[in-house]
Amino acid sequence: MKKQQDELTGFAENIDDLANRLKNALNKLEERKAESPDAPGNQLGNSQQEKQPTPYREKIGKLSGEVVDSNPYSRLMALQRMGIVQDYEKIREKTVAVVGVGGVGSVVAEMLTRCGIGKLILFDYDKVEIANMNRLFYQPNQAGLSKVEAARDTLIHVNPDVEIEVHNFNITTVDNFDTFVQRIRQGSLTNSRVDLVLSCVDNFEARMAVNMACNEENQIWMESGVSENAVSGHIQYIEPGKTACFACVPPLVVASNIDERTLKRDGVCAASLPTTMAVVAGFLVMNTLKYLLNFGEVSHYVGYNALADFFPRESIKPNPFCDDNHCLIRQKEYEARKASETIDLEIQEPEEEPVVHEENEWGIELVDESEPVLSSESPNNSGVAEGLKFAYEPAKKDNVSGDLSPAQAATHDLMQSIKDKLVQEAQKK
Ligand SMILES: [Zn+2]
């Protein structure tokens, strides 16, 4: 009897093992089938794309607010029921270009993907490195892969409804710059202009390239930055002609006024924290959602000083003497538009809190909306300098410079040399 029982148990175990092996073989077969080029869900991005990973679910046709555990949009559609957003589903028509998918850009792309954005166009030419693992998003097993492709693979799994187009190139070379401009102009889901460009790059040259492209195309964009000491950051909304462009005034930064040229020296390694990057990414995507879905108040500038948990907000007017020719054209267009509008919606915008320079303790280069623009000669600098004497203690030694003019002048020189280089390259062609 005992022997028979043992035999039966052994037989059952064998059957289980066989069934498991069969199941595995079937799964592998399914995976291979799904990886074939004509499988559904694989028509994403542009034609140069390699094979796409298998999405975990079918695409969803219409967003539903139904509260069931299997609905990936129930919590987002709840924003509508709660009266925060009027028409959340509009997000599916929107296209956002993200330039730079590093510590900030990758998190931005993930947030937008989870929010169900219609389409993302990702630009980056870097590879994932193990040294990036102190940040969010990328996994160690992705080291060596191009960032945009690694990002696409992850994002398609997170939300297969989002169309993802990737470009593994540097936007600051002449040919790539042209493609970049063309994608801004025609990259949307309806082959028209994208809804927003988000700059999440870590260098001045790329920011200038985004600025030039957006001024040229009259494209609204948002800039973001995290300081090289990892304890401050900012986001900035830029509407050509209406707000200061990136070339109008020296970059607005919180706390650390470090000349970028000194940061890329041999042996000088920037610090980074997942916290600061995630905070900045969160601000950027929140501002993006408010802008795209038309709720709340879109911020023109939000700074973040992590050491003091200080979040300054500001608006900056464009500089009528901006170096960027397209910026001047957009300024004239904006002025004409404003003059022709009988009801000027701008006036109805809530007034920003005035900047109190005495309380400006962290060396923030900001300009009050009522004043003209910040320039290296601007009397505003003295206002900032005055505020510096109350500098936050730990930041004082390393980050706050009493005299901001040299850094601003250096920024201006750098900007000019980049523009000269781009013009020279274009002329060579
Ligand atoms: Zn400008």
The CATH homologous superfamily of the domain at 74-328: NAD(P)-binding Rossmann-like Domain
The helix/strand series, from N terminus to C terminus, equals: HHEHEHEHEHEEHHEHHHHH
Helical amount: 40-55%
For the sheet with most strands, the description reads:
7 strands, mixed
- Which spans of ≥5 residues are poorly predicted at pLDDT below 50? 36-49, 354-411
Number of helices: 13
Each distinct ligand: zinc ion
Spatial order of the strands forming the largest sheet: 3-2-1-4-5-6-7
CATH topology of the domain at 74-328: Rossmann fold
Gyration radius, rounded: 25 Å
* Mean pLDDT over all positions: 78
Would you count the extended β strands for me?
7
Structural class: alpha/beta
N-C termini distance: 90 Å
CATH architecture of the domain at 74-328: 3-Layer(aba) Sandwich
Shape: globular
**Amount of beta strand:** 5-15%
Family: Belongs to the ubiquitin-activating E1 family. UBA5 subfamily.
Protein name: Ubiquitin-like modifier-activating enzyme 5
Pfam family, one: ThiF
GO cellular component, one term: cytosol
Helices and strands, with pairings:
Elements: H1 2-35, H2 74-81, E1 95-99, H3 105-114, E2 119-123, H4 147-158, E3 163-167, H5 174-186, E4 196-199, H6 204-217, E5 221-226, E6 232-238, H7 260-263, H8 274-293, E7 301-305, H9 325-340, H10 345-348, H11 380-388, H12 393-399, H13 405-428
Parallel strand pairs: 1-2, 1-4, 2-3, 4-5
Antiparallel strand pairs: 5-6, 6-7
Bound molecules: zinc ion.
Zinc ion binds at residues 245, 247-248, 318-319, 322, 324, 327.
